[in-house]
Design brief:
Helix content: 25-40%
Distance between the termini: 28 Å
CATH topology: Beta-Lactamase
Strand order of the largest sheet: 3-2-1-6-5-4
Bound molecules: methionine sulfoxide
Number of helices: 4
Strand content: 25-35%
Number of strands: 6
Shape: globular
Order of helices and strands: HHEEEHEEEH
Radius of gyration: 14 Å
Oligomer: single chain
Amino acid sequence: MPLTETFSRLLRQVEALVSSSRSRDEALRSICALLEAEIPHYDWVGFYLVDPAAERELVLGPYVGAPTEHVRIPFGKGICGQAADTAAVFIVQDVSQEMNYLSCSPDVRSEIVVPILRDGEVLGELDIDSHALAPFSAQDREFLDAVCACVAAIL
Ligand code: SME
């Protein structure tokens, strides 16, 4: 399925940010800001990175949105930890139906987590919270997969 015009344009902007930013974190922060500003149903956009100094644990990286208490997340815990554990995209269209969920804000209704992979190994993930119920489509998934493939080059 080809990406919509908006997602194609945003993907080109993400590619430009990855190649022009001065540091990894500057690129990641700019990507968060772009996605949060341009896609109405993306209300919190952030990266979690696998901590090489810890045993199967994610640490919060650059993000845009409300501050979160979930700065470190073990593999398997919450939506983020489950996505890291399975190395697969995890879409929860209604967080009230997900028992293994770490709440950041009562405003959040849905979440998508997309792993960033290199040679099958999880390097980190892109986490997006939405205040809308069931807003994520196959297009979001395809777009965010492409964003993560692009980001893998700088992790
Ligand atoms: N809700 C996530 C925790 C991270 S926040 O959304 C920023 C989870 O269940 O893993």
